[in-house]
Amino acid sequence: MKLVIVESPTKAKTIQKYLGKDFRVLASSGHVRDLPEKNLGIDIEDNFKPTYVMVKDKTDIIKKLRAAVKESDDIYLATDPDREGEAISWHLMTVLELGEDAQRIEFNEISSRAVNAAIQSPRTINMNLVNAQQARRVLDRLVGYKISPILNQKIKTGLSGGRVQSAALKMVVDREREILAFVPEEYWHIYAFLLKDGSTAATKATLTDWNGKKITVKNGEEAANIAEKLQRAAYSVDSVKRGVSKSHPYAPFTTSTLQQDGSARLMISAPEVMKLAQQLYEGVEIEGEGLTALVTYIRTDSVRVSEDAQKDAAAYIRDTYGDEYVPSKFNVYTAKGSNVQDAHEAIRPISVSRTPESIKNKVSKNQYRLYKLIYERFLASQMTEAVYNTLTVHITGAVDEDNYGFKLTGKTVKFKGYTAVYESLKDEEEEDGRLPDFNENEKLSLKEIR
Questions:
Q1: 297 annotated active-site
Q2: Are 249 and 383 in contact (CB under 8 A)?
Q3: Closest by CA position to 282, among listed 22, 27, 3
Q4: Which residues in the chain come in under a pLDDT of 50?
Q5: Which of 69, 127, 193, 416 is an S-S bond match for 202, by CB 3.0 to 4.6 Å?
Q6: Which domains does the chain have, with CATH numbers?
Q7: CA 425, 428, 430, 433 torsion: positive or negative?
């Protein structure tokens, strides 16, 4: 019998399905050791050496794991593929007395292919990752033990401070002070709704300049005076510029962009987004299949995608949308910032052939909505650019000795590209398609000023 130890019971059930009867998959349910609750647990005089104790309520789990270890020929530590997961494996190795040669495996997605490939390529514990987690945990404890008592004394009982939230609070306070110090300046926008000969649909143009210079309308009285003059103006087209623009797809999701987009589009909190994402990663119950993982590891700051995933996406896009929607070479994205670890892929569906519609009635509503968000973002990221015909028109309203300049811009879809993935494209095309064509020196009539 071979033993695989993971963190989550749900994950254990999903992996058990892929490995079969020769394997036993058990879960540690997170950390089994941590710093003590009632004292610092750090020897500041001895290079900040931590002292670990068993986590409460883990006694039965450890007994079960120790018994399983004795009955197993091979033991694989398969906790999450990050610093925290590496530290949990190290603690398990110590508690279960597996020795420094304990077999550590990791995979970015919970699929039969990925799990079995990991079993074939075990490694030893990466102490650099373990020490990175220990350093973070020690900092949490040092900052928390120093700041929390002050917060309890000075502000409110029950408050706590930490390595991240204390610094974040400072940033929020600084930003709030900037907002309070801001002195607002009044300004007004003026729009002309203009008609071409024979047209009944007015086109909205924005006042941008006066006698060739940029104009800023600073109060209501000035705006009213200009509006009165513009009622008497003669309008004509000065210039028409036609062009082509391209729109490149966004990179696939990282943890932070998934939280931002999930909250904004699905109208749920960031913690709820991560809870749902964790379910999609570990496995959801699908009728006829049992627990099935749908997306890759969800804690990542990388926008990198594996070549196998890119090839699968290209084949699917070609079959579904056509050759012209597949880039001549794979789209490559670069994560912003200098501290990106790039240890894992971006968040993506495990299989592009498992479309959102195929699981819509088999998972919860929010699981479906989040999976759809992840799926479409990834698929679009592997497609060609969208191409638009653009139009920029400058119009002069001449009155008395003044020339008031107006600008209008518009675009129509020339080639859908990656936007073909999204259902809202039809509305965008219809709205852009209402923009009439213009020619230089063409006379326009005024419908109204706002």
A1: yes
A2: yes
A3: 27
A4: 424-433
A5: 193
A6: 2-133 (3.40.50.140), 191-248+386-449 (2.70.20.10), 255-381 (1.10.290.10)
A7: negative
Tell me the backbone φ, ψ of residue 398, rounded to 5 degrees. Answer: -95, 125
CA distance 16 to 220: 70
Question: Cα–Cα distance between 412 and 224 in angstroms, integer?
Answer: 34
pLDDT value at residue 336: 75
Q: Determine the pLDDT at residue 151.
A: 87
| Nearest one of 129, 127, 145 to 41, comparing CA atoms | 145
- Alpha-carbon distance of 246 to 80, in angstroms, equals 39
Q: Whole-angstrom Cα distance, residue 282 to residue 10?
A: 6
Whole-number Å distance between alpha carbons of 5 and 384: 42
Q: Which of 76, 281, 297, 388 is catalytic?
A: 297
Name, in order, each residue with C-beta under 8 angstroms of 406's C-beta and a sequence gap of 6 or more.
Answer: 192, 194, 205, 206, 207, 208, 235, 394, 395, 396, 397
pLDDT digits (tens, 9 = 90+) for 281-335: 999 999 888 999 999 999 999 999 999 999 999 999 999 999 999 999 999 998 7
Residue 426: the pLDDT is: 42
| Three-state SS letters, the chain | CEEEEECCHHHHHHHHHHHCCCEEEEECCCCCEECCCCCCCEECCCCCEECCEECCCCHHHHHHHHHHHHCCCEEEECCCCCHHHHHHHHHHHHHCCCCCCCEECCCCCCCHHHHHHHHCCCECCCHHHHHHHHHHHHHHHHHHHHHHHHHHHHCCCCCCCCCCHHHHHHHHHHHHHHHHHCCCCCCECCEEEEECCCCCCCEEEEEEEECCEECCECCHHHHHHHHHHHCCCEEEEEEEEEEEEEECCCCCECHHHHHHHHHHHHCCCHHHHHHHHHHHHHCEEECCCEEECCECCCCCCCCCCCHHHHHHHHHHHHHHCCHHHCCCCCCCCCCCCCCCCCCCCCECECCCCCCHHHHCCCCCHHHHHHHHHHHHHHHHHCCCCEEEEEEEEEEEEEECCEEEEEEEEEEEEEECHHHHHCCCHHHHHHHHHCCCCCCCCCEEEEEEEC
